Amino acid sequence: MALLEISGLSKHFGGLVAIHELNLDVFDGEILGLIGPNGSGKTTLFNLVTGFHKPTSGRVKFKGEDVTGLRPDQLARRGIVRTFQALTLFRQSTVFDNVFNAFHMHYKQPGWKAFLHTPSVSREEDTFKQRAMEILDVTGLTAQKDKLAGSLSSGYCKLLAIAISLATNPKLLLLDEPVTTLSPDKVEMVMEVVTRVRSAGTTVVTIEHNMKAIMDYCDRIVVLAHGRKIAEGLPREIAKNERVVEAYLGSMD
Amino acid sequence: MRSMTKWRIPLSKPRLIALSVIGVALAILPLVVESPYILHLAIMALIYAALGMTFSMLFSTGLISLGCAAFYAVGAYTSALLVMKLGLSFWLALPLATMITGVIALGIGSVIVRYPGAPFVLVTLVLAVVTQQTAGQVELFGGWGGIMDIPSPSIGALQFTGKIPYYYLLLFLFGMIVLVFQALYSSRIGRAWKSIQLSDPLAKAVGINAYRYRVSAFTIASSAAGLMGSFYAHYFQTITPDITGGWVSIYIQLYAVLGGIGFYILGPALGASIMVFVPEFLRLVEEFEPVVTGILLIVLIVFFPGGILGTLQKRPRFRLANLSDRIRKIRRWISTGAL
Amino acid sequence: MSLVTAAQALLNGLLMGMIYVIVVLGLDLIVRGTRIINFAHGQVYMLGAYSFYFAYAIWHLNFWLALVVGAVAAMILGALSYIGIFSFVQRRFIAGGTMSFRLLTSAMSSVGLMMILQQGTLIAFGTGEMGIYSPFPQFIALGAVRLPAERLVAFGIGLLTCLGLYLFMFKTKLGKATRAVCFNAEVSALQGINTSQVYLLSFVVGCGLAGIAGGIAATIFSVTPTMGTHIIFMAMLVLVAGGLQTYKGIIVGGIILGQFLSFGYQLFGGLSYLYSFCLVFLIIVFRPGGLFGEVYD
Fold this sequence. Notes:
The complex is a heterotrimer of chains A (253), B (339) and C (297). Chain A has 253 residues and is α/β, with parallel strands linked by helices. Chain A has one domain: P-loop containing nucleotide triphosphate hydrolases (Rossmann fold, 3-Layer(aba) Sandwich), CATH 3.40.50. Chain A has helices spanning 42-49, 72-78, 95-101, 111-116, 119-138, 154-167, 184-199, 211-217, 235-240, 242-250, and strands at 4-13, 16-26, 31-35, 57-62, 65-66, 80-82, 172-176, 203-207, 220-225, 228-233. In chain A, the strands form two sheets. A six-stranded mixed beta sheet of chain A has the order 6-7-8-3-9-10, sandwiched between helices. In chain A, strands 2-1-4-5 form a four-stranded antiparallel beta sheet, with helices on one face. In chain A, a hairpin with a 2-residue loop joins strand 4 and strand 5. The termini of chain A are far apart. The relative contact order of chain A is 0.18. Chain B has helices spanning 13-32, 36-59, 68-84, 90-112, 117-137, 164-185, 188-198, 200-205, 210-236, 246-259, 266-282, 289-303, 307-314, 316-335, and strands at 154-155, 158-159. In chain B, helix 4 (90-112) packs antiparallel against helix 9 and helix 10 runs parallel beside helix 13. The longest helix of chain B has 27 residues, at 210-236. In chain C, 49% of the residues are buried. The longest helix of chain C is centred in the N-terminal third of the chain and has 33 residues, at 63-95. Chain C has one domain (3-286). Chain C has a two-stranded antiparallel ribbon with strand order 1-2. Chain A binds chain B through residues 50-52, 71-74, 76-77, 81-84, 88-93, 101-102, 104-105, 107, 111, 114-119, 121-123, 125-127, 129-130, 164-165, 167-168, and chain B through 1-8, 10, 183-184, 186-189, 191-192, 194-195, 198-199, 201-210.
């Protein structure tokens, strides 16, 4: 049984078909690359899987459970977490707070105790503060921790987005263009974090345009075009696949 | 990390001192000031400050509500009716009216909070207007003349007379509201609110149920407004539909923005104090008041969107640095005998 | 309710609905184009009505010319407000800040404008109601029913306005540019569209629509100082009931609300707002985005 099973998924926006009858499996522990020309539906697929859009038809199953149409926060609590393409961060908060706030759903102490600021709540908060520091360390953001997220360069923003998602302790991490526009050394840094995250037990699906990153780090690749899956397989195979080349060339008109 | 075994007060020492000073000043005010008129203004300032804080609480979740006045009226009318028609004691009516307001707010809030930004503002304004019209047209609520001769509270045989007992009661209620609000803001609930305000999609993506947190904020804030309404009814002893409606809601928003929209407690307190006391010194012709307020709003938004506290926050280091620089320059000037 | 009364109520409802629709279309255009919620929109409508009244009843201009005067006055007011106030507010948008902060700034500045205009109108014109003697006092007979010509004329003007708007938005270059900016401002700027011009245009046209609606209203209803606040209230209900970002929603919402008020007039007494709100509340309980709109979750 695959970790994530997508069957017959479709999304229509009025007359526009963004995703058409998509079937896709994501297996536990893999790094799956999702590529395709602009407008092929990659981000829409992410939106559907993470609850930001409701599918027109089809099913999504996670760990065997039907999670179609659930809210984003419900899905996050089940372990499906995403990053965003546009630099969606808590821009008016510090880097540290960005990550610290992302622990929100892990609090075990009840709300009323939080209101009363009991010592047990303080202890729990301290635990999460510590873990936030650890995450900042892993993603190389410790030096930036007191800067406002809105003042970061785009490279650090992308790292922060990943750091935030790590705080949620995801089982399935969906990265939306994590290294696009980054310099090669930053790309390597990010992908290294991703690999380490996978070794720790998280499955990763990443949308990317940076072909080198995809080829180097992904176990498998899925290619979308016009809302349909046109190819699926190992990186070597995909690179040689004629339909894929055509799809990209065709989209350049 | 040190392990905490004691309760933590999220306040730094200088702030604690400043707040204590203000607290003491408020506490001894009636003993120092003779004029009942000034006391009345102080009472109204406290009420409006609290109402401004309800606006800010909703703003902290990214919602702009022009409906705070509606729940203020609900609290006022409910309390008045509970006492006058059902014969309840004020001390029972106060918490009861607050709770009833809260339940109504919960019901309405659960439905309207789903609306993003702009329509939500509209719907809440509609709420305020509808409340006003309903209060004015329905017999039970006394029509446009309102309800009069609302009895004053009493403890045992002692009736509340004059302004002083009301003032201290209000100070207590106000203090409670401030404490509760601050406790919420500094807890993970307040942090969740802030996350929702800063980025709704990201907050949801990290597992925060934005809807539920917004509804909670709406309910809590509206209950506080209802509490103030109930107090007002028994203080002023007359309530009319004019205590709510479009204009009032706009003024409430103004208190928060004038003081500083980023300061959820101090902002409205400052804004309300200014708005209540200053017009007295200006003594404008009543006709022009909305015009002046309108101009004030526009100037505020265009030039000082952070409000008073917000603008100060960006400047003070500047000023202080300038000042010490200047002093140094003058000293040097003097010592070189340039004089 | 007799057939005659029903037919009249129907026509009345359609008329009120249409006025709401035109006003809301104007408001919607402004919001979509400039991302500013103009709470003073009702006062613009009121200015259109008063201008028409003055042009027609006091200066004795031609009926049609007076309508144009109403629309133009509204557009001038729109241009002034935009240039004087909202363009500055927009610059703050670009500077950044959370969505709610941007909303707050646009709401507050337009509310300030609303207060100035509303009180200004009261001061200038007093609290009295005014009405015109229609140049179309005849009745047109449709079978057994006699409909007032003035209302049919008003309806016709409204339809022409909607048609004109449609033609403008979909057939002219400027209109298409406006739609592009509504859809995505940054991309449009990149494609060479002069966004500041389009912003001003959206604002002015939006106000113009309100002005025309005000003129139409002045021809058949009376001109009062409270019509501004009344219409913005109704516009808000229409938007919420019909759904955002949907023309279908605006039209259907406007018609429903118009009919509701027209037929229910007797029942409501003075509680029209409460009943209207209940109607809309019911709608959004069952359809959270309004009839045709989509909502957050």
